[in-house]
């Protein structure tokens, strides 16, 4: 049975020394984050994930969800009880507004919990995770009356939420949607259409499900400019907050999937279901993007979570599995073989996993604080800067983060050899679950195109220039010769990214296929540099801790060793990626379609 132990110590280090958690007392919510409170939240959250959620992960995957003839869906054994404990613990309201019954903590604390929950049980985490995104959209675009009616039960977990975008004939190109919203006489609409791939679309965890649905009203432009957003409950809600009649929405089937079997991914049928307009008519896509952007960050965290879960179990196996002898002499002379962790190729895979997971955790939490600053900083310039940075980095966190997360999960499966392919060890589940993160909320190719085609040049390239300047500034400030092992390759890698941007500016506009063909390579380059930036910060902090006589020198020595691995083995990849980018689209597009 796989196990999971929340990396509380590493998270606390990142929050304090890298993300700057305690540097923003002037931002609402941050003053409450005393070191004791933060450690208590992480410790208790980690305990819940390790003791309650993780044991349900493998059996939940094997059992899956069940759709019954009446369209109802039951989750795997143990999920309902676990969800009840989740709600009783107040975890769903951790970062929700206090006016709606939440605890009002900063978003960064929610990001920590998302990682822990995802690593322990990704399928379970999608139920409250999607609900959190729905709450965010209602909070931003809903009327005061809608917020008062719908948000408190969602914050408390009695109701959950979903988002409904995709239809059988359209995914990314939402302008093609056919779901219709016919106005009724009581300020409501009759919603008719079919949505597919709807995670948590139907289940038995909560008493009501609030669907946020994209649809078009009569006479609206038949493109993305004609999309509106509607709130469609599973059960209608009376004026006193009690549940009324069942609405005209049902689960037609559960998708048969490669992974996340314990989450009900549904085909949802809307048959004249009563819905309520959220925000302005024909402005639904912008409203939904509030939820989608939050979801993209959450999916990036899922890439990290599956990688870390796989890494932890691969390390356990590598320490215990005896196979062969070390190339430099027996390390277990009293036994017939050495543990496989002595072998360089096994170490290569484990070190790559460690370098990614610790670096990605730092990038996620550093970026999460930028989300908090963008939303709530009292300084307008700080809000603007933070918004520019997080807008630029969101496709990197989602795209690069899940690409690398899947690679790490696969390599950790490889560490187990044949046992990694056997279901009872659970490694196949981490690989299968990690795979969807590269696909949903915009495939990673779409994320790369978004980065290159929109984000780099947004607002005159303001966010791009700010990020480049920030990395360059931190490199310039790292004057300690002991950091040369990372400052030199990071400077080179940053130069590759800057050269890549210039190449895209010079060639991508003239022939957009050049930008499309090189987008994924550029996203990976930028991801390497973003993680390299975090490793520079962590290495600097660990050197300072060792100089100050830290009580845990082994922790900081391990940080420096891992930083050296990343600097020597990962950062040099940017030169090859730059060559791929600058090769352009000619060889990619040369073969006629009919010859494939």
Number of helices, where a helix is a run of at least 4 consecutive DSSP H or I residues:
16
Summing up helix and strand content along with how strands pair, one would put the structural category as alpha+beta
Give a quick account of the main beta sheet: strands, pairing sense, barrel closure.
7 strands, mixed
The portion of residues assigned to helices is 55-70%
List SSEs in N-to-C order. HHEEHHHEEEEEEEEEHHHHHHHHHHH
Summed over residues and divided by their number, the pLDDT gives a mean of 96
**Global outline:** globular
Gyration radius over CA: 24 Å
The poorly predicted ranges are: none
Question: Distance between the terminal alpha carbons, to the nearest Å?
Answer: 44 Å
Q: Which range does the strand content fall in?
A: 5-15%
The total of beta strands comes to 11
Could you list some keywords that capture this structure?
seven-stranded mixed beta sheet; 596 residues; single chain; alpha+beta; two-stranded antiparallel sheet
């Amino acid at each position: 049975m796989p196990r999971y132990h929340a990396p509380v110590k590493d998270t606390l280090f990142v929050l304090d020394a890298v993300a700057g958690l305690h540097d923003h007392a002037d931002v609402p919510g941050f003053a409450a984050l005393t070191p004791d409170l933060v450690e208590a939240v992480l410790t208790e959250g980690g305990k819940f994930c390790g003791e309650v959620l993780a044991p349900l992960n493998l059996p939940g995957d094997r059992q899956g969800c069940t759709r019954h003839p009446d369209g109802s869906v039951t989750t795997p054994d143990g999920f309902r009880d676990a969800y009840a404990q989740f709600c009783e613990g107040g975890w769903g309201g951790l970062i929700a507004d206090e006016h709606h019954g939440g605890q009002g903590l900063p978003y960064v604390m929610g990001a920590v919990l998302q990682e822990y929950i995802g690593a322990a049980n990704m399928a379970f985490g999608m139920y409250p995770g999607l609900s959190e995104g729905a709450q965010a959209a209602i909070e931003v675009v809903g009327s005061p009356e809608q917020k008062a009616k719908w948000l408190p039960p969602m914050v408390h977990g009695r109701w959950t939420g979903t988002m409904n975008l995709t239809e059988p004939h359209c995914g990314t190109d939402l302008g093609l949607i056919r779901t219709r919203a016919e106005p009724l006489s009581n300020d409501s609409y009759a919603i008719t259409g079919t949505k597919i791939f709807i995670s948590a679309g139907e289940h038995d965890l909560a008493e009501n499900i609030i669907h946020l649905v994209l649809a078009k009203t009569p006479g609206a432009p038949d493109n993305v400019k004609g999309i509106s957003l509607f709130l469609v409950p599973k059960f209608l809600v009376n004026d006193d907050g009690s549940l009324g009649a069942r609405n005209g929405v049902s689960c037609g089937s559960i998708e048969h999937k490669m992974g996340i079997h314990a989450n009900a991914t549904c085909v949802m049928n809307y048959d004249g279901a009563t819905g309520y307009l959220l925000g302005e008519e024909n402005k639904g896509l912008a409203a939904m993007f509030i939820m989608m952007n939050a979801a993209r960050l959450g999916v990036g965290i899922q890439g990290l979570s599956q990688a870390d879960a796989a890494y932890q179990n691969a390390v356990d196996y590598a320490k215990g599995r005896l196979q062969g002898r070390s190339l430099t002499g027996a390390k277990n002379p009293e036994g017939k073989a050495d543990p496989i962790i002595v072998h360089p190729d096994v170490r290569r895979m484990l070190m790559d996993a460690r370098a990614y997971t610790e670096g990605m955790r730092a990038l996620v939490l550093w970026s999460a604080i930028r989300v908090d600053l963008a939303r709530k900083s009292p300084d307008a310039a700080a809000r603007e800067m933070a918004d520019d940075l997080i807008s630029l980095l969101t496709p990197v966190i989602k795209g690069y983060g899940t690409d690398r997360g899947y690679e790490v999960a696969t390599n950790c499966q490889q560490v187990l050899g044949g046992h990694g392919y056997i279901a009872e060890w659970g490694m196949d589940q981490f690989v299968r679950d990690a795979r969807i993160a590269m696909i949903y909320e915009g495939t990673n190719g779409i994320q790369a195109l978004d980065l290159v085609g929109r984000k780099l040049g947004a607002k005159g390239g303001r966010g791009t220039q700010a990020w480049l300047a920030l990395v360059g500034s931190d490199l310039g400030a790292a004057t300690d010769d002991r950091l040369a092992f990372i400052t030199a390759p990071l400077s080179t890698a940053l130069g590759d990214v800057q050269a890549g941007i210039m190449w895209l500016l010079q060639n991508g506009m003239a022939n957009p296929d050049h930008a499309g063909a090189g987008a994924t390579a550029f996203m990976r380059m930028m991801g390497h540099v973003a993680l390299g930036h975090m490793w520079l910060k962590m290495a600097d902090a660990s050197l300072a801790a060792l100089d100050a006589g830290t009580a845990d020198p082994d922790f900081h020595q391990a940080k420096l060793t891992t930083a050296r691995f990343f600097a020597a083995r990962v950062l040099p990849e940017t030169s090859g990626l730059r060559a791929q980018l600058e090769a352009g689209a000619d060889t990619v597009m040369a073969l006629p379609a009919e010859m494939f």
